[in-house]
Amino acid sequence: MTTEISIFNQGTANLPAHLQKYAKQAEAAAQLITGFNSLPKISLRGKQFRYMKDDKEFVYPMGAPFNCVILATDPPAGVAKAWYNEAYASDSAELPDCYSADGIKPDAMSAKSQARSCAECPKNAFGSGTDAAGNPSKGKACSDVKNLFVVEADKLDEQVSVIRVPATSLKNLSAFGRELARNNVAPQLVIAQLTFTDAEYPQLEFKATGWLSEADAAKMVARSESEEVTAALPSKNIIGSFNPDTGEVLDTPRLGIESSAPAKVELEMTDKANGMSLQKFIDSGWKEADLVSQGYAVEKTAAPEVPAPEPEVPSAPNAPAAPKAEPVKTMTAKAGETTYEQFIANKWTDETLITNGYMELT
């Protein structure tokens, strides 16, 4: 089923000829760099891999690795967020009280939405968290997570499962993603070995340990692009956003259904796109609506007509000084990667942006 070899040992990988035709899919490796669905979850409780099947829990032996193929990651950029009003138990099946599948704004189905956007949420601020004893900590009350959609390496035809990678493991996941991206290798082409570090809490390490055969690689790439996987990605199936002050759903539900006659708008890329063109995103499988919702693009607005200059009026005796130029609106570091346009689209005003420290006038 697999060709077991050691890869990346020399810092670069010699991609086998039978896998080189999947160069386009290699862009998915960058998604590993730093929602909720009905697929089976693989728990990390007690630093052992656990999963439920037919109402029965199967537990890997202590210290045993989990070998899998990563079919997809979600969200593709950034992280999802989850907040529990009560202390979270790792073996709990309860949904978070507030969650964001894209890390930008709470989903409308959150039971206790805490803010209009994740950027302004007090639960998403460092220092809002508590430790296991309930004492204040330097961390955040709202957790950052990344969802991995995987199949076991020796059971490639069985059901897809989800591993929720916790915040403590995101740095290691990013390092793994950079290694794949540096070698132009898609995650669907390799066996990923997941193990626990020596930390007292569940922290994962990631390593590529082998190539898939040509037949298995073709099967995994096709499966990663199938509705079985894409329909389960939380960030692709967001059910609107929610205003906690009014109870209003701010966006139309998206559930993967396109409008029958969408209005055609032109997009321009933001600084967050890091120089990548719109066409490159589209070729990688992105939809324009997702680019806008995740801050990689904004709708291009027509430039206003410039009025003809009026004749200069001479100053009257003792006339007041000419009015100063309009101040420049500058987003602060607190706003992170959220653009001014995104805040305004979520009902913010210049006054509330300045009051909350997300913008300043210079």
Structure, described:
- The chain contains seven helices and 15 strands.
- The protein has 362 residues and is of the alpha+beta class.
- The chain has a domain at 2-235.
- The strands form four sheets. Strands 1, 5, 6, 7, 8, 9, 10 and 11 form an eight-stranded antiparallel beta sheet that branches. A three-stranded antiparallel beta sheet has the order 2-3-4, with no helix packed on it. A two-stranded antiparallel ribbon has the order 12-13.
- It is globular, with a radius of gyration of 24 Å.
Main pleated sheet: 8 strands, antiparallel
Q: Please tell me how large the radius of gyration is.
A: 24 Å
Fraction in beta strands: 15-25%
Distance between the termini: 62 Å
Structural class: alpha+beta
Helix content: 10-25%
Query: What ranges have pLDDT less than 50 throughout 5 or more consecutive residues?
Result: 244-249, 251-263
**Total beta-strand segments:** 15
Q: Count helical runs.
A: 7
**Overall outline:** globular
What is the residue-mean pLDDT, rounded to a whole number?
78
- SSE string, helix = H, strand = E? EEEEEEEEEHEEHHEHHEEHHE
Summarize the entry for a quick read.
14% of the residues lie in helices and 20% in strands. It is α+β, with helices and mostly antiparallel strands and 362 residues long.
Provide keyphrases for this structure.
eight-stranded antiparallel β-sheet
Q: What is the secondary structure topology, with strand pairs?
A:
Elements: E1 2-4, E2 42-43, E3 50-53, E4 56-59, E5 66-74, E6 80-83, E7 98-100, E8 143-152, E9 161-165, H1 170-182, E10 190-196, E11 204-212, H2 214-224, H3 227-230, E12 267-269, H4 278-283, H5 288-293, E13 297-299, E14 329-331, H6 340-345, H7 350-355, E15 359-361
